[in-house]
TrEMBL record, chain A:
Keywords: Membrane, Transmembrane, Transmembrane helix. The lineage of its organism: Bacteria, Pseudomonadati, Bacteroidota, Cytophagia, Cytophagales. It comes from the Bacteria. It comes from Algoriphagus ornithinivorans. This is Copper chaperone NosL. The chain crosses the membrane at residues 79-97, 104-124, 166-186.
UniProtKB/TrEMBL annotation, chain B:
CDD domains: N2OR_C. GO terms for molecular function: copper ion binding. Pfam families: nos_propeller. Keywords: Copper, Metal-binding. It comes from Algoriphagus ornithinivorans. Gene3D superfamilies: Cupredoxins - blue copper proteins, YVTN repeat-like/Quinoprotein amine dehydrogenase. This is Nitrous oxide reductase apoprotein. One of its GO terms (cellular component) is cell envelope. The keyword Metal-binding applies. It is found in: Cell envelope. InterPro entries: Copper_CuA, Cupredoxin, N2O_reductase_N, N2OR_C, Nitrous_oxide_Rdtase_Sec-dep, Nos_propeller, NosZ/Cyto_c_oxidase_sub2, WD40/YVTN_repeat-like_dom_sf. It comes from the Bacteria.
């Protein structure tokens, strides 16, 4: 297979580097607004922790019998940093190999990672939204409280939002660079 | 017959035109755009905080300007059952004095802290008139955090006025009184045995903590009001005096005899030097110093034993007297610090004194006499000029920072605007009725915001819907941004306001305490989580360590308490969010409720005197399930064998 052009090698390296901010910036955010919370409640999900109004959100959630949200609940927080580390390692190997398949492989890897994360979040959201304490104070017939995967959703008096945060946006930018690289590669063929 | 007809006709004509002869009412004083100028739309904030003394309610109220809306009643010297101030075990020491627990006082004046003669609005100071004290309120939490008693004082009216960097808060005594070991004296030995003490209370620049630095032993006059010099007159303090006749009965007549009383000028920088040089004398005096701790959420009261006094008859060049006509009430210094305005409440003119001339007169020893060795300056040598025909009964003066002064006229019930340099009267606006203090945002500082003026009135009469014999005191808001004052708003107030100060909301609104971090709660009774909730017996004391969080108390079923036990409910509000207080009250307790802020711990003491099951509940509508936030406590007879137990939610 042919070697990568210099431009595409640089693009690949940059894409690999966009994984690094994941260690220092929040990756995902969930926000809630209600008439009583005009300023909103905001929870940020990092590589190995939660921050923001987690306690307040738990306080609100206890009325509907939702499980307590805490770092200890999510095994992902213990291994996500290694997964991303491994991806950076693989990305660097692809960069050093410098073949055309490198960019396709890394784009595939990032896409698979993104899909896995979304599936994982959906499953957690489903579990939190459906497995409610049968003795909860507020029970609404037929109501579940699964947060939106991405975007907005009204849940009783709360409008919930879920979406990427800084780290993920940077990563999405990295994927954009790879798409550009693939386009250049395809055009230059 | 003919004469009678003419008389009848004249009478009818008189009756017909009589209503037309009534003077024009207030309605005509309002112009078209007044409502728009005071309208603060829903969701918008007022531009200024106005901290208003509560007078005989012993509290402060927090009012927004220009809307005139009351935002909070802030308890200071009076108990406040609404939030447990003076009832909770933690707050009781705040109202302790050398005479024991005092549940009430009369708060007249506000001083907002300044740096370089400009509001920094870190603290608000207030005076207790009746049992002399000064309080400090933290404007980040709107809570009274310190109260210091003033010994050798009675009627703490000339207080609390502050120096331009809040170095000192002063407290001049209205009543001169006998002090020390010599207190059982005949009242008519006033001139020999009575003293008029002026106290200088130092303020720690970092923490705000007060400390009675020194007292000046002044003649037995009545000290009425005061203002610090600022900018060029920084280092001096000016106290108005009346009853320089030194009468002790029927002061209405006997203290109004002299043509001139005095403004007492105090060189406090010099006094400070004398203190440093060890020229003061330590004297025995008992007074309480009460401090609130925002981390233990409780107060301590310490009894102090002595005070440092300075004798100005021996220590020369601290005290000078400026003659001022007719029992001056307010003494006010303009933003530059050059002019000192004395408001002789019975005088036909307003004298304006010059600080520069005062220094020159002192330099030249231009004295007309002395009082116990303290020089009396010549009136004409210190005078800048007199405002002619200003109105009747001048009381107080504030400034707009554009060279104008505004004086309240009690008797002629008006605000009079005049030019400080030219002394020319520029405008008058009626007040409703009999204005006492007036307040311009930043008005007493070196940097007034000359946009609004509030008149705080002593008489209300017909201004609002009547409420029986006792009426709300009225206030009026004027726009003073133009040449002519414009009446904008008339609003009722809380208590009996005297002085008020206003400052831009932007100074403090973004630094407000929203809740107390639970990890910083160092109360010995604090609980850090629901698992710590418990009940312990110690002899006849039962300590209930209780948590409150939406929407339950833990524990909420308690048994094993006996008649005559001292029950202490130590309630910790575990919430960590803004605007989620919880309350606590138990049936029949001879005390007030607790209102506990998020992250705070507060204690209610209760001695049950009968057998029964006593319900308790949350008194602040906290949440959707607030009505479910309740519990029971069983009281058994003394010596009962019902064992102590407690639980939450495990019966079903």
């Amino acid at each position: 297979m042919k070697s990568l052009s210099l431009t595409n090698r640089i693009l690949l390296l940059l894409a690999v580097l966009t994984l690094i901010p994941a260690y220092f910036t929040p990756l995902w955010q969930i926000s809630l607004w209600a008439p009583q919370y005009p300023e909103g409640l905001n929870m940020k999900i990092w590589i190995d922790q939660l921050s923001g109004n987690v306690d307040q959100i738990n306080g609100v959630n206890h009325y509907i019998g939702m499980k307590h949200i805490g770092v200890e609940m999510f095994p992902e927080f213990t291994y996500l940093k290694y997964v991303i580390g491994a991806m950076i390692g693989l990305g660097l190997i692809f960069f050093l190999v410098g073949k055309r398949w490198s960019i396709y492989s890394f784009l595939g890897l990032l896409s698979a990672f993104g899909i896995a994360i979304l599936v994982d979040m959906y499953l957690w959201g489903y579990e939190y939204g459906h497995e409610l304490d049968p003795k909860a104070a507020i029970k609404v017939e037929g109501m579940s409280y699964q947060p939106p995967l991405i975007g907005y959703k009204q849940l009783l008096n709360f409008l919930a939002y879920s979406g990427p945060d800084t780290g993920s946006w940077i990563l999405i930018g990295g994927m954009g660079l790879l798409v550009l690289a693939v386009y250049l590669d395809w055009k230059g063929k | 017959m003919k004469t009678n007809k003419w008389l009848l006709a004249a009478g009818l004509i008189a009756a017909a035109i009589a209503p037309g002869c009534k003077p024009k009412g207030a309605q005509s004083a309002i112009t078209g755009d007044a409502a728009a100028k005071v309208y603060v739309a829903p969701g918008q904030h007022d531009e200024f905080y106005n901290i208003v003394s509560g007078g005989f309610n012993g509290q402060m109220s927090v009012v927004g300007l220009p809307s005139g809306r009351v935002l909070k009643i802030l308890p200071v010297f009076s108990v406040h059952p609404e939030n447990g101030w003076g009832y909770s075990e933690q707050s009781k020491p705040m109202l302790n004095t050398s005479l024991g627990f005092v549940p009430w006082d009369d708060l007249h004046h506000i001083a907002i802290s300044t740096t370089n003669a400009e509001h920094d609005a870190r603290w608000a100071f207030g005076n207790a008139n009746n049992t002399p004290r000064i309080a400090r309120v933290d404007l980040n939490s709107f809570k009274t955090v310190e109260i210091i008693e003033i010994p050798n004082s009675a009627g703490n009216h000339s207080s609390p006025f502050i120096t331009q960097n809040t170095e000192y808060v002063v407290a001049g005594t209205r009543f001169s009184v006998p002090v020390g070991d010599n207190q059982d004296v005949s009242i008519d030995s006033y001139k020999e045995n009575f003293k008029g003490y002026i106290s200088f209370i130092g303020v720690n620049q970092e923490t705000g903590e007060m400390n009675l630095s020194f007292q000046i032993e002044a003649p037995p006059f009545n000290f009425d009001l005061a203002r610090a010099g600022k900018n060029k007159s920084h280092g001096w303090f000016f106290f108005s005096t009346y009853n320089t006749e030194m009468a002790h009965t029927l002061l209405e007549v006997n203290a109004s005899q002299k043509d001139k009383d005095f403004i007492m000028a105090v060189n406090w920088k010099k006094a400070e030097e004398y203190v440093k040089a060890g020229k003061g004398t330590k004297k025995k005096a008992r007074y309480a110093h009460n401090k609130w701790n925002e981390e233990t959420h409780s107060a301590t009261s310490t009894m102090m034993e002595e005070v440092l006094t300075l004798d100005p008859t021996v220590l020369k060049d601290i005290v000078y007297f400026i003659p001022c006509p007719k029992s001056p009430h307010g003494t006010d210094t303009d933003p530059t610090g050059e002019y000192i305005i004395g408001s002789g409440k019975l005088a036909a003119i307003i004298p304006v004194f010059s600080f520069t001339k005062m220094l020159a007169a002192i330099e030249k020893k231009d004295f007309e006499g002395d009082i116990q060795g303290m020089p009396v300056l010549k009136y004409e040598s210190v005078l800048h000029g007199e405002v002619q025909k200003p109105g009747l009964g001048p009381l107080h003066t504030e400034f707009d920072g554009k060279g104008n002064a505004y004086t309240s006229m009690f008797v002629s019930s008006e605000i009079v605007k005049w030019n400080i340099e030219t002394l020319e009267v520029l405008d008058r606006a009626p007040t409703y009725y009999s204005v006492g203090h007036l307040s311009i945002p930043g008005g007493p500082t070196g940097k007034p915001h000359g946009k609004y003026l509030v008149a705080y009135n002593k008489i209300t009469k017909d201004r609002y819907l009547p409420t029986g014999p006792e009426l709300a005191h009225s206030a009026q808001l004027y726009d003073i941004s133009g040449d002519k004052m414009q009446l904008l708003l008339d609003f009722p107030t809380i208590g009996e306001p005297h002085y008020a100060e206003a400052f831009p909301a932007s100074l403090i609104k973004d630094r407000q305490v929203k809740f107390y971090p639970i990890e910083k709660n160092h109360s010995p009774y604090a609980l850090k989580g629901i698992n710590d909730a418990r009940v312990e017996r110690k002899g006849n004391q039962v300590h209930v360590y209780m948590t409150s969080i939406r929407s339950n108390f833990r524990p909420d079923n308690i048994e094993g308490v006996q008649v005559g036990d001292e029950v202490y409910f130590h309630v910790t509000n575990l919430e960590q969010d803004w605007d989620v207080p919880h309350g606590f009250a138990i049936k029949g307790a001879n005390t007030a409720e607790l209102l506990i802020m998020p992250g705070e711990t507060s204690t209610l003491k209760w001695i049950p005197d009968r057998v029964g099951v006593f319900p308790f509940y949350c008194t602040d509508f906290c949440s959707a399930l607030h009505q479910e936030m309740q519990g029971y406590l069983r009281v058994s007879p003394k010596g009962s064998n019902v064992s102590l137990k407690y639980s939450t939610g495990d019966s079903e």
